[in-house]
Amino acid sequence: MLGKTHIAFALLVAIVAVDSFEVNSLLFVFVVVLSALLPDLDVKNSTISRWFPFFSWFSRHRGMLHSFVVAVMGYFLMSLFSEAYGIAFFLGYCSHLILDMLTPQGIVLLAPFSQKRFHGFLKTGSFEERMLFLLICVLIVIALVY
Q: Structure pTM?
């Protein structure tokens, strides 16, 4: 999926979840959206790699960074500071994994413990992804209004 789709979906998740916590709403949303971009640190031209270009030299795309294991580890690390922001990290990271599972390339969700690849049919940058992005944007507006 494209960076803008990951950002939009993470924003939707954050808007829906933020009222469940007594936290700074903007910081919560920021953590969700930023963590939704982190799995693509392993791509040279990704949205987040433009800020941190050095990381893509160390791993292959959709490898270990696209694992649920990293989401859980990030949750525990962030929870050392705040349980709510640990959950925000987890939600954002998992939002990325969910969207990438919809693509034909998919992800190895439980790497390194399993090599089973979960995949779908939405090609990155396709018409279908653009329609998904528009649907997510409509849902964001609805979530903000209600």
A: 0.91
Q: Look up residue 61 and give its two tokens.
A: 């795309």
What value does the mean pLDDT take over residues 112-136? 95
CA distance 93 to 101: 13
Asked if 41 and 52 touch (Cβ cutoff 8 Å), the reply is yes
CB-neighbour burial class of residue 2 (10 A; exposed 0-12, middle 13-18, buried 19+): middle
What are the helix (H) ranges across 18-126? 25-37, 68-79, 83-101
Domain range summary for the chain, segments of one domain joined by +: 3-99+125-145
Query: Amino acid identity, residue 118?
Result: F
Smallest Cα–Cα separation from 76: which of 92, 65, 68, 87?
Answer: 87
